[in-house]
């Protein structure tokens, strides 16, 4: 009986000791975790650059309202890390295509960041129906001569859509006197900007009180430009091999109806999916082309999808 009592007492002591040790470990763990949170996770305020511009037009950073608005967009875009990395990856693929088109059609290079702000360099549609990398509404695309129907939607044709974007923006620049106002009108519309100019008797974007979307719009573009021009400054780290690459293509002219694109592409060694990746303006599996219009289809060079 005494032996059993001693054994029972020992078990109790061991159990109490285990509880005490666990309690100490829990306390230590909490302290360690707290230290790690403080030391390993930090969010920093971002210094605003001394000078910023859009298309060579200076941002009036001496104005406290302007500083607050650019600060907001820098913070929002710099700390949305997953989206930021995707933008860098896509830009490496699409900027080499966009930049010569902007030069060809007479737009400042900074407008590539407007395309980033509009679509994140994805061939997608917005909830409102704006489509393509430049996010044209259907009515605007038709007004500027783009073909938009069940078989072809040239809002998704990078060269043709860039040509129309340039035409729209150059016309706005002539109307409003600055590239900054032209960019704002891309969001609010020419009519919307004219209305606010008349109401407020101001002609500078930075002096106008605009709706929440347009009031942020140009600042978002400028913040994207700043971050994408200085990735390491804003904590983005990547290697060249991490980025998406531009795939070389050649053009094939089509001036007849196509009954089945999936069959049409077989001699070129690709499938329908790859055809659509490089020609998102093709909207169906066939093409009605009774008029004999010339279309130029992009075909990737041999070996890229093998």
From TrEMBL:
The keyword rRNA processing does not apply. Keywords: Signal. It comes from Aequorivita xiaoshiensis. Belongs to the transglycosylase Slt family. SUPFAM superfamilies: Lysozyme-like (SSF53955). Residues 1-23 form the signal peptide. This is Lytic transglycosylase domain-containing protein. Residues 108-206 form the Transglycosylase SLT domain. InterPro entries: Lysozyme-like_dom_sf, Transglycosylase_SLT_dom_1.
